[in-house]
């Protein structure tokens, strides 16, 4: 991987997440019956950050679940002979919550398709929305985010990498070449 350019620093990421938190609250008409589900790996810390922001704004902190979509991937056989499963941890009744899936980057749409399928196996949520820090077209599936921090146009030989303090050190979003 060769980093081409930095497109978001920590302050810009914070502002984008804060805007997403406000949009989620507005769309949901508050924080009642709301739950966030972070998709492993970087969607999990982003979901926790959004949950705290919503608490600061609304006074109610939505629960956060974590979702491992490894076994739902359509390219599972291409990943590894023994894929590493991180585990799903959802301690609330999905059927009673309006779910906001949280991930770092939306690109092809395949991860989100797998996540929706995994949620539906757990229970039938009244609604499932999608929040992403970065939206990087083009899509392979007709899936779009409801809440987007930043749209990032790139060529097919480039990809968006989100670096988070919880997993990588400093907060930053970069465009890198394959």
Topology diagram in text:
Blueprint: E1 2-9, H1 10-28, E2 34-39, H2 43-58, E3 64-67, H3 76-79, E4 98-106, H4 110-122, E5 127-135, E6 147-151, E7 158-163, E8 172-177
Helix pairs in contact: 1-2
What does this structure look like?
With 178 residues, this protein is an alpha/beta fold. It has one domain (11-155): Rossmann fold, CATH 3.40.50.2020. 29% of the residues lie in helices and 30% in strands. The chain has a five-stranded parallel sheet. The radius of gyration is 16 Å and the shape is globular.
**Structural class, judged by helices and strands?**
alpha/beta
- Mean pLDDT figure: 92
Q: How many β-strand stretches?
A: 8
Order of helices and strands: EHEHEHEHEEEE
Helical amount: 25-40%
Q: Report the radius of gyration as a whole number of Å.
A: 16 Å
For the record, the CATH class is Alpha Beta
**Distinct helical segment count:** 4
Uncertain segments are none
Whole-number total of structural domains:
1
Tell me about the largest β-sheet.
5 strands, parallel
Q: Determine the N-to-C terminus distance.
A: 6 Å
CATH topology: Rossmann fold
The coarse overall form would be: globular
CATH architecture: 3-Layer(aba) Sandwich
